[in-house]
């Protein structure tokens, strides 16, 4: 799966080809926030960031955008049910002989149902692509690429529909939750550190002006903003794989300065 993602799904050329689509979705979110702010309405950043990342991931992965024959409610229900089950504790994971506890509690039944629901969801997407229905994006989405690899006799892996569904599951769930979590933690950290937020705002406004738009190519011209994002990822990794660590002394790692934790 890693080879397929690196070489075919998430290579540099493919990621860059979806740049305009990402910028379009971000600009729509900013306009929506602007309208809510103008009317003094509350903004649910968690919900908005989840909507943004899920829309981008679905457009890149499935060639579909919510609201155009693609039911957001159905996807959200499936996604939230998976999140709830992933965060649940199953007795059978620790004591296999006590798997009957999970059956009695209904967790096994919920797992089977969500697997069936997602399977039918992905099957509908695959059938649409196999029937060559017109895609909303001029670029190939991930389903198109995976179906081509499936038909490629020279490809070393014998891809099946189940393999494709599993890859899409990882991409959709991982991409949606990870991207949303990073954005929420970043904004939370900025709200807790107003001086840092002022510096970020000043750097952005100096580059594009108060009413300008920041594009992906502009990120390299915003070193302080990049440092803030990197620090957010260090402090709040979306998928922590290492043992938690602290800086016991002031240090410098690859040009990044870290103060001793108070």
Automatic annotation (TrEMBL):
Q: Report membrane topology.
A: Single-pass membrane protein
| Alphabetical keyword list | Heme, Iron, Membrane, Metal-binding, Monooxygenase, Oxidoreductase, Transmembrane, Transmembrane helix
In alphabetical order, the GO MF annotations are: metal ion binding; monooxygenase activity
Per the record, GO CC terms? membrane
This protein's cofactor list reads:
heme
**SUPFAM superfamilies, sorted:** Cytochrome P450
Q: Which Pfam families match?
A: p450
PANTHER family (UniProt xref): CYTOCHROME P450 83B1-LIKE, CYTOCHROME P450 FAMILY 71 PROTEIN
Return the similarity comment: Belongs to the cytochrome P450 family.
- What's this protein's name? Cytochrome P450
Species annotation: Cinchona calisaya
């Amino acid at each position: 799966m890693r080879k397929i993602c690196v070489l075919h799904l998430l290579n540099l050329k493919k990621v860059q080809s979806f740049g305009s689509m990402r910028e379009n979705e971000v600009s729509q979110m900013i306009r929506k926030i602007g309208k809510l702010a103008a009317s003094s309405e509350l903004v649910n950043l968690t919900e908005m960031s989840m909507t943004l990342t899920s829309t981008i991931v679905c457009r890149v992965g499935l060639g579909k955008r919510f609201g155009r024959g693609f039911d957001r409610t159905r996807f959200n229900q499936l996604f939230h049910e998976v999140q709830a089950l992933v965060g649940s504790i199953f007795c059978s994971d620790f004591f296999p002989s006590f798997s009957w506890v999970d059956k009695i509690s209904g967790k096994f039944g919920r797992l089977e149902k969500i697997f069936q629901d997602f399977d039918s969801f992905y099957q509908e997407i695959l059938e649409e692509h196999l029937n060559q229905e017109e895609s909303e994006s001029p670029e190939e989405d991930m389903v198109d690429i995976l179906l081509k690899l499936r038909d490629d006799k020279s490809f070393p892996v014998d891809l099946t529909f189940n393999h494709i569904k599993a890859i899409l599951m990882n991409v959709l769930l991982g991409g949606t939750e990870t991207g949303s979590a990073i954005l929420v933690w970043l904004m939370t950290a900025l709200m807790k550190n107003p001086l840092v937020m002022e510096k970020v705002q000043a750097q952005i406004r100096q580059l594009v002006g108060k009413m300008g738009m920041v594009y992906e190519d502009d990120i390299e011209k915003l070193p302080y903003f990049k440092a803030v994002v990197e620090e957010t990822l260090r402090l709040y990794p979306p998928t922590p794989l290492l043992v938690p660590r602290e800086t016991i002394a002031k240090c410098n790692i690859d040009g990044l300065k870290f103060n001793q934790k108070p």
